[in-house]
Design brief:
Layout (H helix, E strand, L loop, with lengths): L1 H10 L4 H22 L9 H13 L4 H21 L25 H8 L9 H13 L4 H5 L6 E2 L4 E5 L5 E5 L2 H16 L21 H11 L10 H14 L4 H8 L4 H4 L7 H11 L43
Antiparallel strand pairs: 1-2, 2-3
Helix pairs in contact: 2-4, 6-8, 6-10
Length: 330
């Protein structure tokens, strides 16, 4: 198991949290088989054993995304064993992952996002830290884990950028807006005044005890500010979704958003093409030359009005060819 951990961390360059999640799911699998068979022997596992474990998960009413994640961990483990020659065949081969529901990303409206970002109240560290964290989640579209791992040296106030280490330890440079820059500048000034025992010298964001601010604390921060939103619900990832959705709605192209968010595949970014019908119709009405529609016949002006007259004029759609004031229809 130690070799597999090293493979995940060093070769696949997965984050510590992801590695621990893989090992935990693998432990669930081996524990189930050990309880059923009296012991766990990786080489003795066959496809029937994998399916029995999946049935066990379904009976415990686990959701499809959770089951798919657990199966992915076991699949990764056996592919590793096959490459190392420990086992001859992968027992997960041919076992289908549960079909996942296609859900549009949930996100906050621009007004609610602004309310949440501006909501932090005074605390032991002060609202400056919390405001800066929220500005990075929404203004830069960062993941919680990416905010957690930021160091002071990653922030370049003069250039208006932050260097982010994302999934697979891949780095990218993300531009910062004016609000995020001001919030970070205020926090860095405040941070220099906070030097409690045990302070992490590298970490950008500190807890009340001087340690690196972790993901759980960031999630609690968003939960604390959630009542400021008019719509129900808000999570750190909703702010990331809001960043992408609001940029797309303002005309940003998918490739730029893909680079900003650090998506490996454009198909992941395409989830955000869920622009509301109202926004789509408003854009259409403004941009398309044939978008100026006339009211239905039932709402047409009474006889004698401009839309009536001989030759069935009331039934003709004028589209965008309207008569200008002061001119005569020909």
């Amino acid at each position: 198991m130690d070799d597999f951990r090293e493979h995940l961390a060093s070769e696949r360059r997965l984050s510590h949290r992801t590695v621990e999640g893989y090992l935990r799911d693998l432990g669930d699998f081996s524990g189930f088989l050990a309880e059923r068979d009296g012991a766990f022997d990786a080489a003795a596992v066959d496809r029937a054993a994998v399916r029995a474990w999946l049935l066990h998960l379904y009976r415990h009413q686990l959701q499809a995304p959770t089951i798919a994640r657990k199966l992915a961990a076991v699949r990764c483990y056996y592919r590793f064993l096959v490459r190392r020659g420990v086992v001859d065949a992968d027992p997960t081969r041919g076992v289908r992952s549960p079909k996942l529901p296609q859900r549009a990303p949930r996100f906050l409206s621009p007004d609610d996002a602004a309310r949440l970002v501006e909501a932090p109240a005074d605390s032991a560290v002060g609202p400056t830290r919390d405001r800066a964290v929220l500005e990075l989640l929404y203004g830069a579209g960062l993941r919680v884990g990416e905010v957690e791992t930021l160091d002071r040296r990653d922030v370049q106030l003069g250039e208006g950028t932050v260097r982010v280490t994302g999934k697979g330890q891949k780095t990218r440079v993300v531009p910062l807006g004016g609000a995020a820059l001001r919030a970070l500048q205020a926090w860095l000034f405040r941070r220099s005044e906070l030097v409690p025992p045990g302070t992490d010298p590298a970490a950008l964001f500190l807890s009340n005890r001087g340690n690196r601010l972790n993901s759980r604390a960031i999630q609690r921060l968003v939960a604390t500010c959630r009542p400021a939103c008019q719509q129900g619900g808000a999570t750190p990832h909703w702010l990331r979704h809001a960043c992408a959705s609001h940029m797309l709605g303002s005309g940003a192209d998918l490739r730029s958003i893909q680079e900003l968010l650090g998506h490996a595949r454009l198909s992941t970014t395409q989830r955000y093409t869920h622009v509301s019908v109202e926004t789509l119709m408003a854009t259409y009405d403004q941009a398309h030359p044939r978008a100026r529609r006339q009211p239905p016949a039932s709402e047409a002006p009474a006889s004698g009005g401009p839309a009536s007259g001989g030759g069935g004029g009331s039934a003709r759609a004028l589209d965008h060819d309207t008569v200008r004031p002061g001119s005569e229809a020909r």
